[in-house]
Every structure is written in structure tokens, then in C-alpha cells.
């Protein structure tokens, strides 16, 4: 029995050596997506709920008063966290544009079967508090992202993650533009 396994004993150290060589040379997969990237995706994942409430209420996708209030609140939180308010505004303006693009696309289609008969969430008590929480976490993650010096990696991860999630370029492009601006890169 020993003889049948003996030829394979040299394989484990070789595989381990190859694995560590790939990691050290950068050929292995990059580290997990940045928290900021995951928050951009998480925020967008709520937009079907927002869109369905707007569909049910025949409300427009664009809500300039709500959008401006959000931008001002985020600027204030960003300033308290030591971020330049204009960068925070640009970041969240990009996320708002991405959200609106998603909602417009969603509403251009018939109501999905998964939403037939499903109770609508309450924007005031359910959805907006979650979005506000995501916004607060985005400020923290934006601060970390700006300090890390990994802006290019974060932007690349965001584009790749949004593409893998199946978002359209009309959604991805403003999200990325806002992300670049927030991280201090040219949009």
C-alpha cells in the first residue's frame, strides 16, 4: 500500500511552492474587494425597492429636494470625518446618478414576477434608514480609501464587481465617476 502513495509525496511541496510563488508574484487573485466597493454594491441593491415604491405611487425617479438634502447631510458627515466636502458631494452625486439610472431602467420594464403580490416596503421606516446607514458607512470607507493610496485598485474592483453583479454601464459609469472623484482622482 505504501508504494502506491510514495510517488505522490513529492507533489505536495511542489504545489505549495508554486502557490506561494504565484501569490508573491501577483499572479494569484487580488485581495477581497474594498469595503467601499461593497457598500456601493449594497446601496445599489436597494434600488429595486425604491423603484417599486415609486412605480406604485406613480412618483418620479428624480427627487431634487431629497437628493440635495442627502448631499448636504453627506457633506456635513464627510467634513466631520475630515473629508473635503466637495469630494464627498461628488462621490454621492455619482451614487445618486447610478441609483437613478438603475431605477429608470427598472421602471422601463414590466413589474418582475418576484414583485407580484409582494408587499411594498415603506421608504420612510424601512428603506431610507438602511440607505442612511449605508451612507454613514460609506463616509468611513471613503476616508479609509483615500488614506490607503489604493484608489486605482478600488476603482478597478468597483467596475469589475458591478459588472459581475450584472449592472448596466449606464449605472456603472456614474458610480465609478463619483468613486474616482471621492477618492481624489479626476472623474
From TrEMBL:
Question: What Pfam families does its record include?
Answer: CM_2 (PF01817)
Native organism: Prosthecobacter algae
Cross-referenced InterPro entries:
Chorismate_II_sf, Chorismate_mutase-related, Chorismate_mutase_periplasmic, CM_dom_sf, CM_II_prokaryot
Read off the Gene3D superfamilies from this record: Chorismate mutase
Domain Chorismate mutase, residue spans: 14-107
Its name, as the record gives it, is chorismate mutase
**Hydrolase keyword on record:** no
According to its UniProt record, this protein's enzyme class is isomerase
Signal among keywords: yes
Alphabetically sorted, this entry's keywords are: Isomerase, Signal
E.C. no: 5.4.99.5
Amino acid at each position: 500500500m505504501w508504494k502506491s502513495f510514495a510517488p505522490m509525496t513529492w507533489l505536495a511541496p511542489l504545489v505549495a511552492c508554486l502557490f506561494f510563488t504565484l501569490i508573491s508574484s501577483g499572479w494569484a487573485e487580488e485581495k477581497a474587494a474594498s469595503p467601499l466597493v461593497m457598500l456601493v454594491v449594497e446601496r445599489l441593491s436597494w434600488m429595486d425597492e425604491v423603484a417599486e415604491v415609486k412605480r406604485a405611487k406613480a412618483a418620479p425617479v428624480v427627487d431634487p429636494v431629497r437628493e440635495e438634502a442627502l448631499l448636504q447631510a453627506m457633506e456635513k458627515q464627510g467634513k466631520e470625518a475630515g473629508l473635503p466636502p466637495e469630494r464627498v458631494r461628488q462621490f454621492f452625486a455619482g451614487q445618486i446618478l447610478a441609483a437613478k439610472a438603475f431605477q429608470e431602467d427598472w421602471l422601463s420594464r414590466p413589474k418582475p414576477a418576484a414583485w407580484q403580490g409582494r408587499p411594498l416596503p415603506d421608504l420612510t421606516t424601512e428603506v431610507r434608514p438602511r440607505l442612511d446607514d449605508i451612507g454613514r458607512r460609506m463616509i468611513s470607507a471613503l476616508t479609509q480609501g483615500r488614506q490607503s493610496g489604493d484608489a486605482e485598485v478600488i476603482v478597478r474592483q468597483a467596475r469589475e464587481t458591478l459588472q459581475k453583479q450584472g449592472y448596466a454601464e449606464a449605472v456603472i459609469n456614474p458610480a465609478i465617476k463619483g468613486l474616482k472623484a471621492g477618492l481624489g482622482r479626476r472623474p
